[in-house]
Predict the structure.
Amino acid sequence: MSIINVGGLTKYYGAELIFRNVSFQIARGDKVAIVGVNGAGKSTLLHIIAGHEQATSGEVHFARGTRMAYLTQEARFDSARTLLEEMQASLDYLNALAVEIASLEATLADSAAPEWEQRMERYGELLHRFEHAGGYEIDRRIDMVLSGLGFSEAQRHEPVARFSGGQKTRAALAAALLADPDLLLLDEPTNHLDLAALEWLERFLRDWDGTLLVVSHDRYFLDRVTTRTLDLAFNRLDGDYPAPYNRYLELKAARLELQLKQYQAQQEEIARTEEFIRRFKNSQLSAQARGRERRLARLKEGWEGGSGRAEHLIARPEVQKKLAFKAGAQVRGADLVLKLDGLAVGYEQWANATAAPLSTGTAESPQRHGTSTAHLLTLLTIPDLEIWRGQRVALMGPNGCGKTTLLRTIVGELPPLRGRVRLGHNIRLNYYAQAHEGLQMANMVIDEIRRIRPGMKETEVRTLLGRFLFSGDDVYKRVGDLSGGERSRVALAQLMLLGGNLLVLDEPTNHLDIGAREALETVLNEYDGTVLFVSHDRYFVDAVADTIWMVRDGKVDVFDGTYTAYITARDAIATKASGPAGGAPAAGGERRRTPAAPARSATQPAAAATASREQERNERKRQRRLAALEEEIAMIESEIKQLEHDMNAAGIAGDSKRVTSLSLQYAELQEMLHTRYDEWATVAG
């Protein structure tokens, strides 16, 4: 039975079409993902379904009595209520049930009363709904949800209006889950969640028997929670696949491959038919030629017979534009890239100053400066660690545990509280900041690229920005006016120009859609330098990292392997610890602490990786490099074709200066194309 029926939704903002004629149904209990590039209209579609926005045309119908909860990307709390009070307010549905149940109980004593059976049936239904929604264990459910989403006991008594944006989003998510709706709409629910909260949310939603419609760029989350994928692309619902994300990719690729084959076969048949008509229209076979001409015209115009037989042109499969770029180290550095010696990172907190907000840390010995006193707040204590050339290290851990602080200490923005950071000989470090602090917001995009490399010609800048999906007048937009995703692409474009051999990246996938994340994965896997990065995107981490630095209780545990291998090892240890032998309490009645995963020696170099894994990784890099080169070649060929058209137009108009300028651009692109062809031949072997 369908809980929601969406029919023919079309949405315009002014003259701009967002999507047209979107239709689908969702059955009770379905877990459905909506995917698509940034700007495809995913959030707009959720807004319309939730009733927060009107469609230009089309309708949304719900099953009778459907209760809905909706989490937007930016949560707002305007009252002065505490977190606990907001959670209790989200349970108004349960309170209303309790009032009606109490009212019915008062009328059920007299079984001879009129309509007693109907009231008894209603009473039983309400009791079932009250129990199913957790009405008899409200406090426990609130505690379970708030703990799962990472709220401390102290935070539960603080006004939500004072929370950060991320904390408000988590609070809104908690309220939506506690409401126990029939239909739950979630827009990017994994934003601002750390690993523990992500895993808890996945378990909750998998076990929950309600209906879910979710927008997310977290591929790992989608694979573990959803069972159906709606693909919103090219201003329409481009596909409805009965599968989670990875299987959806396979099904979509197969569909596009079949459509391309059908398109090519039809185009070949059209060419043969047109050749027959051309050759025999005025010959003895003219009748046949005219017959084929009529059938061809009918095909091109689209025709449907009375029996339902139809003929129409098959469209060439459309493919979304993707980021197409590469990163390379301009110099080779030492084999030992980075060494951390007895490092402790954190902040100085002065008695007469406001300290940076901290969620964890220890106060060390105070220091005196005049009348002020400073305490060293240590967020992380790091063992002696080394990173070797070619390693991809993912730094992971809870929100607020000090990951960004460690990166800022490594790049020299913050002094260490203790110990030191040592870079190897000839190591050039480039840093990608999470909030894009390095960007000049007043600059135009094109000038921001030239700020990094002043000697670049306009054609070169435009070609580079084109690979980061900036075209036409987009290059003249102010950086401060760009969306978060667009600013991320500008920062990545700058990073690719710097040519360092050590990339330090803080949440590089923030604001990027799935296609852009996949492109970044390819670039980093082909990069011939070393990478240290922070990310909550587990799919991205699994695709890139070969070493995990996991922050636990103010320390860093090192695991040599992928994220999947880390999770497998962690779960195996947890299973063993919960068994008959490992499950026994330690002395004093306390259970022994289970390690997250077996830690390797901190000084073990990357060369310790097995030969088979290295061979596998190299083949994956080769295949991804080939794919990237093919996309880049296609883009350059498209630009050359456009230049040819522009040169012809300028020649007809007699604009000799423009012809000369375009000819120079044409020659540069031709040279670039030949270089890419040579590189493709080398990689392909």
